[in-house]
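Lab manual, section 2.4: Encoding a predicted structure.

Procedure: take the sequence of the chain (498 residues), apply the prediction step described in section 2.3, and record the output as structure tokens. A sample record is shown.
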Amino acid sequence: MDSTLIISPETLTLYCIVAVLLLFVLKCTLGRRQSSRGAKALPCLPSVPFLGSLLHLRSPLPPHLLFSKLASRYGPLFSLYMGPHYTLVVSEVTLAREVLLHRGKDFAGRPKMVTTDVLTRGGKDIAFADYNTLWRSHRRLVQSSFALFGEGSSKLQTIVLDAADNLCSDLQACRGQSVDMGPIIMRAVTNVVCRLVFRSTYEPHDPELQQVIYYNNGIVQTIAHGSLVDIFPWLQIFPNKDLAKLRECVYIRDKLLTTKLEEHKLTHTPGEPRDLLDALLSGSGGEGGVTDDHILMTAAEAFGAGVETTSSTLLWTIAFLLHYPEVQERLHAELDECVGRDRHPSLSDRTSLPFLESVLSEVMRIRPASPILIPHVAMQDTSLGGHDVSKGTRVLVNIWAIHHDPKHWEKPDQFRPDRFLDGMGKRITPPSYLPFGAGPRVCVGESLARIELFLLLSRLLQKFHFSVPYGASLPDLRGRFGVVLQPQRYTVTVKLRH
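Recorded output:
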């Protein structure tokens, strides 16, 4: 009689899953033993093998509000297990500055996750790539490329003001009607990024623009859902609609961007960059190790990071102006006095428009686009707040909690732009204000984002008055959490001021 054991493929798969589960249980147990060796014990959420603290994180609250609630119980620095991953949550500015600035290089790592690997070709971007020599070369190249379009250059200003004029034309056509500004602003900001990255300007219904909006929205929506494969990578063996959708959108994105890159290789002149792709091409290769993949992922990140955050911040600003019409009146008066009606606002007007700058700052404080920063990872054994931190520990910085801390902000839940002005009406930046992060991992596009927000908002308010449509409700200010914190959709009536 043949004694060979025959195992079906289904049974073998089950055995493999059980084996992986046991390995994760062992890893979690070891992690708990290791974490107990620190100088002082950190408050830790209850956890179970394999799942970690996930059962105790079930809540209808979005993560930034849930972590803020937990911080009020456990303190501004507490720990939890995201599956097998030992994670610290920081909700106070002194601790945040220690993570981001004072020990910035110690905590400059990024976790390796399935979705971000799909999104970035295995970490060839800036935001999600791990901290190493190649990343530093890549970041320097991106910073120098962005500098060609930032302060001191008229290139970005021209691009944004052209987009602002097109945006104003779209809104003028809707004047007197109830309009959802979300798609109009999203299209305008997408056009800015398209022109900045690869010098293409689109009409509203251009098929290529619609393709860009389609893949960008698809990526944002699938990432926003969150995915257990980022906690338990072995779950990739099962069908996953979100992961399949993400791969489809990334394929469309990369096909379009590759075509643009190949066209640029044939036509660009070194030393004479026409756009971001030209600037990146001129500085790539050589000893730095920056490849075509890095260039493509930088271009892709300009869409992923630049469109959603800027669009959401502008929509939040208008939503708050509808709630606070006296702020809108004050902005109109400042623009009329300092800019007038006969010319576009320009970057040279920034110092003359401190209240407008303070309104933008207050919007990014009270509704930060990234309420929780991208996770940091300890790259070596270090410490935080007097506690030992082991290499590989993940750290989440809760910007929402820091921006709403009553110890640093008077009545933090109230919209008060004047908190960013001193007694002389000059612009100030409180130390607890970190909308773009800080340190080695500070947002590389911060300067460009601030320029774009200033020019778009100043042009819109110079030209239009925004009000709540007759019979409509004020915008819901609670927001919806995804890749960024977005306002709920709302409608507005647009009226020409002049």
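Check your result against the sample. Confidence is low (pLDDT under 50) at residues 1-38.
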